Amino acid sequence: MPIILRDGRIIFGGCVVAVIGLLTLAAPLVSPYDPLQVFSGLRNAPLGTAGHLLGTDQAGRDILSRVLWGGRVSLVIGTVPVAVSLAIGTCLGLIAAYYGRWVEFLILRLMEILFAFPLILLAILAAAVLGKGMLNAMTAMTIVVIPYVIRAVHAAAKSTMGMTYVEAAIIRGAGPWRIMLSEILPNIVSSLVVFATSVMPIFIIFSAGLSYLGLAIEPPTPDWGIMIAEGQQVIQTAPHVPTVPGIVLLLVAISMNLIGDGVQDALNPSSRRRPVGADPQLSRPI
Fold it and tell me: What is the rounded distance in angstroms from the CA atom of residue 104 to the CA atom of residue 154?
């Protein structure tokens, strides 16, 4: 933990994510206006307009208010699927690694079917089949990330199956779930942390992309992806409309990537000395 706290990337990225996250959570308190309130006489107002620090969009809505409220949606859609997929994928990955044989074969072959599809296309397909809506968007992204979690957990758990502490637990007569949860899982938690911090920024961008394509949140609900898509119509006359939410989205993604890189180096110092072309068991899934 002290090593993690001394890493400048984690400190900087954590501060940025914390500030943006707290501001979005406190949107009802700090937002200057209702995100749906329209100022008909101030359409496409530029940055620094009196009463509208970040200007207004093509409908006359305050951009700062919409960025704050939209962050609540974008961050939830981008992070909840990762947490849910980690829970489901960890259970299936542990089961596949522990029981082996036909159980392992069945789980891994089913996941290989999903691996046959490009990740982005699979997410779009799942979202299109499930329909629009925040819950359906999160379900779609959960489905596409589960195979990567299973593969990562299976590889890490398989490498610990031959350890003496696992064999000792088996000799003591510990049950399968006790061995998986008490002996194997604690020893792969660090790998799961690295995995989660690596994929979260990707899925925050994914959530914005699904909203951009009209497969997640529907207007006029504020969302960073929707704001970028709508602002594209006036990018030549009012470039700040799509640029502001785009910058915030990019800042969050970069900050979370910095956190992921820092955590990976802190928990696995050998990764900094990894030779070029090496393929670690738990690398970024995309």
Answer: 9
Kindly list the distances between the CA atom of residue 92 and the CA atoms of 98, 136, 286, in Å, as whole numbers in the listed order.
10, 22, 21
Half-sphere exposure (CA, 13 Å, Cβ side) for 261? 13
d(CA 106, CA 39): 58
Question: What are φ and ψ of residue 173, in 5° steps?
Answer: 90, 20
Query: pLDDT tens digits, residue range 134-156?
Result: 888 888 888 888 888 898 888 88
Is CATH 3.40.50.740 the right assignment for the domain spanning 2-271? no
The residue extents of the domains of the chain are 2-271
For the beta carbon of residue 38, count every other beta carbon within 10 angstroms. 16
d(CA 253, CA 16): 10
Residue with tokens 């119509």: 233
pTM metric for this prediction: 0.77
Contact (Cβ atoms closer than 8 angstroms) between residue 89 and residue 285? no
